[in-house]
Amino acid sequence: MAFAPRPRYDWRLRTRSLALGQRTLVMGILNVTPDSFYDGGHFYDAASAPERAVAHALQMLDRGADLIDLGGESTRPDATPLSPGEEQQRALPVIAAILRERPQTVISVDTFHAVTARLAIEAGAEIVNDVSGHLWDARMSATCAELGCGAVLMHARGTPKEWKSLPALVHSEIMPMIVSELSDRIAAATAAGIARERIVVDPGIGFGKRLDENYPILAHLAELHRLKLPILVGASRKGFLAHTLAQAPWLAAVHRGAMPPANARLSATTAANIAAILAGAHILRVHDVQAAAEAAAIADRILEG
Fold first, then answer.
1. What is the pLDDT of residues 113-169, one digit of tens each?
2. 100 with 127: CB under 8 angstroms?
3. How far apart are CA 235 and CA 251, in angstroms?
4. Residue 273: helix, strand or coil by DSSP?
5. Per the CB 3.0–4.6 Å rule, which of 34, 113, 202, 207 could disulfide with 84?
6. Has 161 been annotated as catalytic?
């Protein structure tokens, strides 16, 4: 199988541009939440914030992160909704503290609240990463257009409260659905005034797609190139990887039929990350920055070949 070279783009952010396609960029995940599925509570403590979060951000930057994606509200399945005010209390001090330590850091704010997006960009963030693709807050597209920031449009099917009850998807229909619905989100965003040069798309692995429904996304990720925009992929430590490991008979002695916990999914994540790069992903959103950066260095050389 021959791998096609990635399209190259200049992603326009609030104050700068990032070259995409020459090499894979690594976006380090920083959740200042008590309830995220993997690192909930690790870097958030109301008594000590933002010190622990800042220390982890600096560590990720030192280990190869090109961007930091900061989230103040969990969007794991069945997550408890948070008010924008609570989200801002967690996230905004961390943005300011990171930029005091490393003023050139490219920060993405992971939010679907337009008011939080505005305050985060005004505090120095460059990108708004909205897991709903601007569907859950009707003001988001106009806000991002006014702010002139980078925008990640993710595909989400339903909401976290609905994911467990959504009907199963036919595998052959998954990527056509994602491409079509992302195309609609792009059209709405550009109609609101967001320039295409500011948009990156994300197929939304795990967001309303259950377990094995995520493999057609990785297998057919190249179909997203039809949208003629850069691609971000976030498969890091997600449950569909653990499900596969638990079901593999040849791993029965290792996992004994149980899904390995989130902290035991690094090798599986690396495999998914490499597959995404070889299919044309421009950015990986990850918990384990050094492992992703090292894997990307090899996968990028394969693409060069």
1. 999 999 999 999 999 999 999 999 999 999 999 999 999 999 999 988 888 889 999
2. no
3. 21
4. helix
5. 113
6. no
237 has catalytic annotation: no
From residue 195, alpha-carbon distances to 2, 34, 95, 150 in Å are 33, 35, 25, 9
State the number of CA atoms in the 13 A half-sphere of 279 facing the CB.
Answer: 23
Contact (CB, 8 A) for 96 and 124: yes
User: 147: closest CA among 186, 176, 189?
Assistant: 189
Domain boundaries, the chain: 9-236+280-288
User: What pTM value is reported for the model?
Assistant: 0.93
Give the helix ranges, DSSP H, for 4-83.
51-62
- What's the one-letter identity of residue 67? L
Radius of gyration in angstroms for the set of CA atoms belonging to the chain, rounded to a whole number: 18
- Homologous superfamily in CATH for domain 9-236+280-288: Dihydropteroate synthase-like (3.20.20.20)
From 118, 157, 209, 285, the catalytic residue: 285
Residue 37: per-residue pLDDT: 47
Q: Which of these is catalytic: 6, 118, 198, 238?
A: 238
Contact 14/197 with Cβ under 8 angstroms? Answer: no
